[in-house]
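Help wanted!
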Amino acid sequence: MQANADIDTSATLTERQKAVLDAALRLLVEEGDNLTMTAVARRASCSKETLYKWFGDRDGLLTATVQWQASKVRVVPVDGEKLDLASLTASLEGFASDWLKVISSDTSIALNRVAVGHAGSGKDDLGAIVLENGRFALARRLKPVLEAGKQAGFLDFTDAETAFRTFFGLVARDVQIRLLLGDRLESTEAAIGGDAARATQQFLALYGAKTGPQGL
Amino acid sequence: MQANADIDTSATLTERQKAVLDAALRLLVEEGDNLTMTAVARRASCSKETLYKWFGDRDGLLTATVQWQASKVRVVPVDGEKLDLASLTASLEGFASDWLKVISSDTSIALNRVAVGHAGSGKDDLGAIVLENGRFALARRLKPVLEAGKQAGFLDFTDAETAFRTFFGLVARDVQIRLLLGDRLESTEAAIGGDAARATQQFLALYGAKTGPQGL
DNA sequence: CCAAGGGCGTACCGTACGTTACGGTTCGGC
DNA sequence: GCCGAACCGTAACGTACGGTACGCCCTTGG
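Answered by r_m:
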């Protein structure tokens, strides 16, 4: 289907439909891409006819499921009012920690797996949806923080996109690809916190302004 | 998963079999995971019966194809005899550039896609094979260089694995996941070179020894 | 020259699954 | 109480594809 991919969804969804999509999501996490319409219907205690009436076909159900999950992680925009270095550091660490938790979660792994698989034979735009609500959403939320840090004199960069991508790399490293490829990689709360702190310190070492906020 | 994944294959392969696997590989790049045995047979101008006799079943063909591709990128180990900073930098840049070229290549993307897809429903160990010949092989090749740099006094780190993962993150950033998810992301030769240089400089900024080789 | 075997092409089988159709049940409105 | 709509459960259909069987060709060796 041609995939409008963003608008409209998650509104105009009845509670029952949300429940069905939740069931599909759970099944997706358990079974991967080889979930059948019958299994979804059985799990959701609904009829296949209803599935087809609501979502068109299998791809429609999949994209609806992915969008439904995406709509659930709408986050509050960070208000950048406090400008001291400690709060900037804490904010960056928070982003890093949240991101590591997200990409380590079962549902994220499952969703990324199916999206990657579908990106190969481009029938739908699952990849675009996941990308839009994952990596690009993160960039949209983080960049204002980076800009605020720059304005406050704590950060020094010319291109926010480049700075963001560096931060992204320092945080994620090889975690996501290893998890997607099936590597066990225990991610304890403490380890994630440590990695987030390390990534933040490294980022500050690279992009921290030489002169403090009172400089220049 | 322990995944022997390396031994035995690529030996005991007749030229004809290699040609068949090349055909399968090409088809995998074009079609993704939804390639059929019939299509492979047609492309390779062989019979399905031959495919089954040689490779057992579809999964066998797939793993043989992945291993065949992996066996083709056996690289020469770097001899770390020259110890000046320029050669270390050049070596790191070379690794970064090579790695970016690899993960941007069509065949790598296709192989990772199918491996990620199969990692979901763990029938075979495609994920382990790809991981073993990709990210872990890179680590094995790079770590001696890092250790040599440390011995020579140019680098300062306690854990080579951690240092490697940082370098990995600085080089790859969001490139691989974006490509896997279908994001267009033109990778010109020049851009890759620039990114490799930037990642190397950032890595040296983080892990370069404060004191030079003559220090302490 | 002939027999054997490896391999090509193709027809065929079984099954899994997407998709559709249909009878039975619940529920809101009159 | 009755009607229609929405929905559940399930049976049925069509197809795609993994896997197998068989006939033919071509080469090799005696």
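OP: Thanks! One thing I noticed: The CA atoms of residues 71 and 176 of chain B lie 21 Å apart.
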